[in-house]
């Protein structure tokens, strides 16, 4: 596996690969890889000739007081796991490589970034779209792989790709869960055993909501209340948001009569977890 820290060196290497006709699949990550990330890498390896994985904990998508400094990192383990999953090139730039002095260009998707996580984390998606845009320019992939776990991120990136006529196919991969249903996340390591035990309520609440819709529930407000009540029964849970939105434009729905996204963010102690489920009626 090739490992690059330098943008120009990796660009030259990938240019050669492209000249040989190789199709490039790209998996952007913030590292501390788990089965969720590995599922993206494995899929990219099946669908492309060359798989590039980036590991960059992007400071510009963390707000002040968020967990940038303590975000979990284990580069040796990431190298081993990504190689085993089928990565051919690892891109691990330093902060100065990505944001040299004088850096001053941002890419912003409006509206879609103003709800859900965008509301609770002002500036977060500006950081995400800016860094993903940069990474797309550096890697120039044919396909880029993102997890449905970050549902809003997927929709925002699809919008950016469309609006800016970018030649990359965005491939969305299903949420990978722990055996008990908790969505895998690098941040799960922050949870103590009590918090970890209670966090399973998120998956249970999403399943409950799906069942209610399947049984005929159409009132989004009533369902949202039921989800909130179920989560609040866990003493360590602190709800950031529970939302039932249109699966395409992320606008809050009143009546559930088409494809909806049930999305939530809940804190357990200091750890903020997100999860979601798409339900079609
Ligand atoms: N459980 C999962 N299932 C599928 N894809 C996932 C999962 N967790 C993360 N991903 C995807 O992996 C990519 C990189 O995500 P990232 O490095 O932020 O990991 P993460 O575990 O989601 O971290 P965190 O939850 O701490 O933000 C994103 O496209 C994300 O959606
Ligand atoms: C896409 C991403 C790698 C950009 O930093 C990040 O937001 C993530 O890991 O989902
Ligand atoms: N997966 C989204 C990265 C973040 O929480 O900053």
Summarize the structure.
Keywords: ATP-binding, Coiled coil, Cytoplasm, Ligase, Nucleotide-binding, Pantothenate biosynthesis. It contains ten helices and nine strands.
What does this structure look like?
The chain has 281 residues and is of the alpha/beta class. The chain has two domains: 2-173, Rossmann fold (3-Layer(aba) Sandwich); 186-276, Pantoate--beta-alanine Ligase, Chain: A,domain 2 (2-Layer Sandwich), CATH 3.30.1300. Helices cover 39% and strands 20% of the residues. The protein has ten helices and nine strands. The protein has helices at 7-19, 35-47, 75-85, 95-98, 116-120, 124-139, 151-163, 193-199, 201-214, 220-232; strands spanning 2-4, 24-29, 50-55, 89-91, 143-147, 169-173, 237-246, 260-268, 271-279. β8 and β9 (271-279) form a beta hairpin. α6 (124-139) crosses α7 (151-163) and α9 packs antiparallel against α10. The chain is globular and about 55 Å long. It binds adenosine-5'-triphosphate, pantoate and beta-alanine. The site of pantoate (PAF) has 10 residues, from β2 and α6. Beta-alanine is lined by residues 30, 61, 150.
């Amino acid at each position: 596996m090739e490992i690059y820290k330098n943008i120009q060196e990796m660009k030259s290497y990938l240019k050669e690969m492209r000249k040989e006709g190789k199709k490039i699949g790209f998996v952007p990550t913030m590292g501390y890889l788990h089965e969720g990330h590995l599922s993206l890498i494995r899929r990219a390896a099946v669908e492309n000739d060359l798989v590039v994985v980036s590991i960059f904990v992007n400071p510009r998508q963390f707000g002040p007081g968020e967990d940038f400094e303590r975000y979990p990192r284990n580069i040796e383990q990431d190298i081993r796991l990504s190689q085993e999953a089928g990565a051919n090139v690892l891109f691990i730039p330093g902060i100065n490589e990505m944001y040299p002095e004088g850096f001053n260009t941002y890419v912003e998707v409006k509206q879609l970034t103003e709800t859900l996580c965008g509301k609770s984390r002002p500036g977060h998606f500006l950081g995400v779209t800016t860094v993903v845009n940069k990474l797309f320019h550096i890697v120039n992939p044919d396909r880029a792989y993102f997890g449905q776990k970050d549902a809003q991120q997927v929709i925002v990136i699809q919008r950016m790709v469309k609006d800016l006529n970018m030649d990359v196919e965005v491939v969305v991969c299903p949420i990978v869960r722990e055996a008990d249903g908790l969505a895998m996340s690098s941040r799960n390591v922050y949870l103590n055993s009590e918090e970890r035990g209670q966090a399973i309520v998120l998956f249970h609440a999403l399943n409950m909501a799906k069942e209610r819709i399947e049984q005929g529930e159409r009132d989004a407000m009533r369902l949202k209340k039921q989800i909130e009540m179920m989560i609040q029964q866990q003493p360590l849970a602190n709800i950031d948001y529970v939302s039932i939105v249109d699966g395409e434009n992320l606008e809050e729905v009143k009546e559930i009569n088409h494809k909806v996204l049930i999305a939530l963010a809940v804190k357990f102690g200091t750890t903020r977890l997100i999860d979601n489920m798409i339900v079609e009626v």
